[in-house]
Amino acid sequence: MLLYALKRLIYVLPVAVGVSIVCFMLVHIAPGDPLISVLPPDASADLREQIRRAYGFDKPLPVQYFIWLGNVMQGDFGTSIATGRAVAEELAKAVGNTLMLSVVATIIGFVLGCLFGFVAGFFRDTAVDKIASFISVIGVSVPHYWLGMVLVIIFSVQLNWLPATGAGPGGSGVWEWDWAHVRHLILPAVTMSVIPMGIVARTVRALVADILSQEFVQGLKAKGLFDRGVLRHVVKNAAPTALAVMGLQLGYLLGGSILIETVFSWPGTGFLLGQAIFQRDIPLLQGVILVLAMFFVFLNLAVDVMQSALDPRVQRS
Amino acid sequence: MSLFSPSAAVPVVPAERSPGYWSLVLRRLSRDKVAMIAFVVILALVLMAIFAPYIAPADPYKSSMLRRLRPIGTPGYPLGADELGRDMLSRLIHGARLSLMMGILPVFIAFGIGSVIGVAAGYIGGRFNALTMRTVDVFYAFPSVLLAIALSGALGAGIFSGLLSLTIVFIPPIARIAESVTTQVRKIDYVEAARASGASGFTIVRVHVLGNVLGPIFVYATSLISVSMILASGLSFLGLGVKPPEPEWGLMLNTLRNAIYVQPWVAALPGLMIFITSIAFNLLSDGLRSAMDIKA
């Protein structure tokens, strides 16, 4: 078990290094001089050169990479060009908000997805299955940013039940678990939960159908055990995979939250990313992407190890 | 009298050709009602995109300050007017052109490039495989939305940078599938036999490998079109990808966002188009998968 975890870690490290290289290169694939947004347009060639040296852009790329990596390792992600604040500071505020939104959405999606998937798998090829499966297809096909807009139209514009944007009354920065705050969370979380709902439902349906067709279940049925007893076995066998899918979905939501955060002006990493893109703030862009991608890489690792701990049959090569 | 008079001969029945794999797949697919409806919807969308100038009742670029944000059913504006007074119906019809192109093209290019990478890695194996697949893993390690946004965010807005970013996003998953299918096929006896009989590597790949791996890779690629549609329009929705005033569904959704308090249902229309397209591709891909009897 521990050996397996260690093996996975050794395998993941080069990938993590690769991810950091891709993030580093983002500055360099951006068209134009990376300094263009800091320099005044009438800067003399002399000043240009001076600043280039100050930012370290005169050194060869590999050297630049290692300097950058060293800084990042110490928590220094550089300075945002637009605000002049440290990128790490901006990130710290945003990550918490995104994490909360994604976790709540994942839980909603997981519960609903399991429900639909279970029902569909148990009553396979019946009308119930068709309906549940259709809902899961809708879940994976709907453009979630549009769904967010539609929910805002219904619940904010027409019914006026829930707020359309923001993460708290009066744009307050501190989150609290009271109704005034939670009502801001409902629409974005429900919108976001649609994707994991669809995927979890599809996975669980396939799992349940597969388990039900296996010999040991036939055996249990032959022994006269059904319903509750069989259900227990099915849950036990489906749980590791379903949980793994849930973990991966959390990672996808964290990385893909930008569209939903833009719709709801949710002050998380996605919103920050949107700002970075809009203002061509490349250090901020780089920092946000690096943190989200690394989170995803190590979440994957954690899910993988956890899954093999729960179910020793699945040790991925 | 010849013993073999024609009349005595057994009537010559031309050997019935057993139906090929693909005609079997097509026959199964044509019996799948859901998949057929999805196919018809996609066909209609594609025809709409091709013949947009002939179908659209008005010029999709012609704005009118006097007729901004008209509701659905306004005379002369069957689906209302957008924030610049342009005819929504015409813009939705014309929008199919860029939206479909931005959604489908990256998957097709990635299908080509990803298959080459994956099949080469799977067939050659060894160090080449390790090196290629670890590189692919790096890109695969990003959530797809994040990678698409990172790349087009760095490259800047524009149709080309949008297409390029999406293509890069879809190469790794396709290459991974291609590699794993090829590795499986390579171990099968007939490939071994072909090699023993002296066939060149190129011939083996062309005859024995590609014929067996392209199907599953293709089905997988078609399942990505729906994601690609949502992502491509998402990029335009964020202000990346297609630039105004081009009609494109994601971009239209973006520019109409502020209008949800005035004409909410007009503002929601472009998203409905994305939804219909995406679900149709998903259902057709599901149908194709079960018609080809591919598990996983």
Please give a structural write-up.
- The complex is a heterodimer of chains A (317) and B (296).
- Chain A contains 12 helices and no strands.
- With 317 residues, chain A is mainly α.
- Chain A has a domain at 92-273: MetI-like (MetI-like fold), CATH 1.10.3720.10.
- The radius of gyration of chain A is 24 Å and the shape is globular.
- The mean pLDDT of chain A is 81.
- With 296 residues, chain B is an all-alpha fold.
- Chain B has one domain (26-53, 81-291): MetI-like (MetI-like fold, Orthogonal Bundle).
- Chain B has helices spanning 21-31, 33-50, 52-55, 88-124, 126-140, 144-155, 159-186, 189-196, 201-237, 249-255, 264-291.
- In chain B, helix 9 (201-237) packs antiparallel against helix 11.
- The longest helix of chain B is centred in the middle third of the chain and has 37 residues, at 88-124.
- The chains are: A mainly alpha (317), B mainly alpha (296).
- Chains A and B meet through helix 1, helix 5, helix 6, helix 9 and helix 10 of A and helix 5, helix 6, helix 9 and helix 11 of B.
Please write out the topology.
The complex is a heterodimer of chains A (317) and B (296).
Chain A: H1 2-29, H2 45-54, H3 61-73, H4 87-122, H5 127-141, H6 144-158, H7 179-212, H8 215-222, H9 228-256, H10 258-264, H11 269-278, H12 282-310
Helix pairs in contact in A: 1-12, 4-5, 4-7, 4-9, 4-11, 5-7, 6-7, 6-10, 7-9, 7-10, 9-12, 10-11, 11-12
Chain B: H1 21-31, H2 33-50, H3 52-55, H4 88-124, H5 126-140, H6 144-155, H7 159-186, H8 189-196, H9 201-237, H10 249-255, H11 264-291
| Topology order of chain A in helix (H) and strand (E) letters | HHHHHHHHHHHH
| Secondary-structure-derived class of chain A | mainly alpha
Question: What is the overall pLDDT average of chain B?
Answer: 85
Total count of helical runs of at least 4 residues of chain A: 12
Mean pLDDT, all residues of chain A: 81
Q: What CATH first level of chain B would be assigned? A: Mainly Alpha
Series of secondary-structure elements of chain B, N-terminal to C-terminal: HHHHHHHHHHH
Indicate the multimeric state.
heterodimer
Strand content of chain B: under 5%
Q: What class, by secondary structure content of chain B?
A: mainly alpha
Low-confidence parts of chain A lasting 5 or more residues at pLDDT below 50?
none
Helix percent band of chain B: 55-70%
- Helix content bin of chain A: over 70%
